[in-house]
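G., the chain you wanted modeled:
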Amino acid sequence: MSDPHAAGRRSLRSIESRSPAVTRAIGVLEELSRRGVPTRLADLARSLDLAKSTVANVCAALEDSHVVRRVDGLWALDYRVVEFGQSFLASTDIVAEFRRAAATLPTAHAETMLLAILDGTDVLYLARHDGTQPIRLASDIGRRMPAVVTALGKAMLAQLPPAQLEQRLAEVGELPVLTSRSHRSVESLKEDLEVTARRGYAMDDQQNTEGVSCFGVAVPGGPSRSIAVSATLLSARVTDQLREDIVADLTTLSRAVARVVKP
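Predicted structure as tokens:
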């Protein structure tokens, strides 16, 4: 049986590195993070295109530092990864500014808001503002989602130069279809991105989750930064006026974040 998690992975054997051991260790951590569940050694080796003995040695070394752990003979991330992530977020200016500015917005402060970066063909969530709505619609910090089904991702994809956009979309392969409203073709997605670029914000109209809508605005500064902010709310609550007010607040928030982004 083929390993679905291995699709689209780049062989670590093909990567030239000044420190192969470090590259392999990072590869193991990335793969465990991507899978999100305890994983067999053989599956890790297959996904990374490395010998089982090599992966076993890497995992044993990482286990000594409490970065990975064994779970019933499988491998999973350990608590030190959380410490590293929290330390990074605490020392990152854009996260602190996002949290500060989000709380001051006149309308969007009541909603769930997210800060994310574009990493390849995924969005990676860096920070969250929970808001005051009784139903909170939140994604976990550190979680990845396909960029093409999120307002955050589409806002960032829409600002890419055409050549870069084509390169990213070529890596997607088959579009993820999560709901009946998800894009079925690259042509449909491109039309959406063209509209997004013209109006200045992206919409996820139940393309990710039924009954949930999201609006996203890219942080100014060009594609090299690839950062965006978003607000998520129940689709039943969306009105023209609320959408206008939230987009205005997200635009303000994106500019606040842009001021602390290092070139």
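The longest helix spans residues 240-258.

Shout if anything looks off.
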